[in-house]
Structures are given as structure tokens and as C-alpha cells.
Amino acid sequence: DVFCPKLGNSSKFTSLVLTKNTFELKGKQVLDVGSGTGVQAMVAAVCEAKKVVATERNDVAYKNLEENINTLKKGYGYDIECCKGDLFEALPIEYKTKFFDVIIGDMPFVNAKSDPNTSIRQCLYDNNHEVHKLLLTKSKDYIKEGGKLYTSFSTLGGPEDVEFFEKIIHETGW
Fold first, then answer.
1. What does the alpha-carbon distance between residue 115 and residue 117 come to, in Å, rounded to a whole number?
2. Model confidence over 78-118: pLDDT tens digits?
3. Gyration radius of the chain over CA positions
4. β-pairing, 51-56 with 29-32?
5. Helix (H, G, I), strand (E, B) or coil at 38
6. Out of 94-98, 125-129, 158-162, which region has the weakest mean confidence (pLDDT)?
């Protein structure tokens, strides 16, 4: 019931971008929102982030996230913390200020209605780009001045999706 990251190009692309820019992660405080299986959180840890926090709301995905992170921590001792809940609301109080240098949001990316009862649809579909709107508007509250935000989205919806993202990026100051 968890979307396998090797099936999605956005996970591969985001991982590639992060590994090609390890200097952006090394020694930094990193937040991976909507972490799913934890791929991007683990990439950040391997790229020598000082601290990684991963949030996930889906129960099945969260269990998988914890298992993956615990396996990596046991083998290598990385500082990765899992938080159960929706994007930023899952964060403990000590992270509720501009704590993070980097925020990663490799989340549902197709503008289509999702079925809350289907895990796979939750992983793929972002109705009216609501999740991305939340990411782009709320991330400013959690990221340090000069911090970086990495996200992805699909253009399967056509030019209006690109126009939407250009508009919301401009409106939120990214």
C-alpha cells in the first residue's frame, strides 16, 4: 500500500538533484515533508545533513518510513527523526520556528482528485494543487533566511499547471 519510489520519476529526479548538490545539504538542518518511504530523507542523511526530520501523514507510509529510517540509523548512525502527521503540523515545538536550512517536498504531483481511501491515489494526486499551495505558503515559517526549497510537480494537466506554479511561486516569494 506504499508507493514504491523506484516507480516514480519525481523521486528519482529529486534524489538526483540532491546528490548533485550535496553542498546544499552537508551540515544543514533538513526537513522532508510528505516523506512517504523516506527516500529523500535518507538521501539528505547520506549527503551529510546535520539533522533530518521527515513527516508523513499516511499510516501505512509512516510505518514504512520508520522501518526504513531505523534500518539506516542502525547501520550508519545518521540523525534522522520521523514525525507522524500532516506536513508541518507534525513537527515538535522546537522545529516550529525557522529551524531548517533546506525543505524537501517530493509529494503528490498530479492535479487530480484523490480518493482518501486509496493510498496509491493519495501518493499521486494533489486536488487543485492543495498540498503544493500549503508547502509553498507554510514553508516560509519553517525555513531560515536564504534557505532552499526542493519540490516537484507534474505538467500532465497542461500549461495551466505550469502557470499555476509560476503564479504561486511568485506570490509566496520563492
1. 5
2. 999 999 998 899 999 999 889 999 999 887 566 666 565 66
3. 15
4. parallel
5. coil
6. 125-129
